[in-house]
Write a structure and sequence with these properties.
This protein has helices at about 1-20, 55-70, 85-90, 105, 150-155, 170-175, 185-195, 225-240, 245-250, and strands at about 35-40, 40, 45-50, 55, 70-75, 95, 110, 115, 120-125, 140-145, 160-165, 180-185, 205, 215, 220. By secondary structure, it is of the alpha/beta class. It starts with a helix and ends with a helix.
């Protein structure tokens, strides 16, 4: 009986430990819930609405993925400059935040299947003449969000003064005030600011076509194959059912 009691106690102890797993520890064979970081300052992909809820394309997309794959997602609003470090430290299980899949990032983290193609575009005031490409911005100030591929693209063009921002919205505010001459960001974000926002749509325009080919992916800690496979299963189902296209119409058109 003593041996039986010990075994029961051990089983109960292990069960409690499994239930008590916190963010960054969703590695069991039956993943039911994950904590997901997102920088909710990047409309229409991720943002905070008037009721302080995190909403946007990415949020709806991952919720759809979770539903198809049989798990729940809890979103955590996280500043961009520390979002990957937090994943590495196990503060959350995944990141969905308009993250472009790059070779450099793949060295450190694992990415899901691509879920949307979004290239970089240049946005300028409508009264700025003679600009058809980013190269035409030499001698001018161009804003981008720090650490993004937009910032990286601006750096590639000599003669442009890059101004980095913690939030992309601040770059558009500066352009509206005349402190910078252009903004580079992902196509969905550009569409939101330049084509949809009442305060900007009469003042700004997107120049030409996207000048990069980029895909967004969901990020997980390196080696977390179980969670990655689960997410990819959900992505495949969402894409097969056309749910992603419905969400594009809702958020990006």
């Amino acid at each position: 009986m003593r041996r039986f009691s010990f075994v029961v106690a051990l089983v109960l102890f292990l069960g409690v430990c499994m239930v008590a797993l916190g963010p960054g520890e969703a590695h069991s064979q039956n993943i039911k819930k994950i904590v997901v970081a997102t920088d909710a300052t990047w409309p229409p992909m991720e943002m905070v609405d008037a009721n302080k809820n995190i909403v946007g394309f990415d949020i709806d997309f991952l919720n759809a993925v979770a539903k198809e794959a049989g798990f729940q997602a809890e979103f955590k609003n996280t500043a961009w400059d520390g979002i990957f470090g937090g994943l590495d430290l196990g503060k959350y299980d995944a990141v969905i935040s308009s993250v472009t899949i790059t070779e450099e990032r793949q060295k450190t983290f694992d990415f899901s299947l691509p879920y949307i193609n979004a290239g970089q575009v240049l946005i300028v005031p409508k009264d700025l003449k003679g600009v058809t490409t980013l190269a035409d911005m030499k001698g001018k100030k161009v804003g981008a969000q720090i650490g993004t591929t937009g910032s990286m693209e601006v750096k590639k063009v000599s003669g442009i003064e890059l101004k980095n921002y913690d939030e992309i919205g601040l770059a558009f505010e500066d352009m509206a005030s005349g402190r910078i001459h252009g903004v580079v960001c992902d196509t969905p974000v550009a569409a939101d600011y330049a084509l949809q926002r009442a305060e900007y749509k009469e003042r700004f325009m997107i120049v030409g076509e996207p000048f990069t080919e980029e895909s967004y992916g969901i990020v997980v800690k390196k080696g977390n194959k179980e969670l990655l496979d689960l997410i990819n299963t959900g992505i495949k189902a969402v894409q097969a059912k056309g749910i992603d296209k419905e969400l594009e119409k809702k958020w990006l058109r």
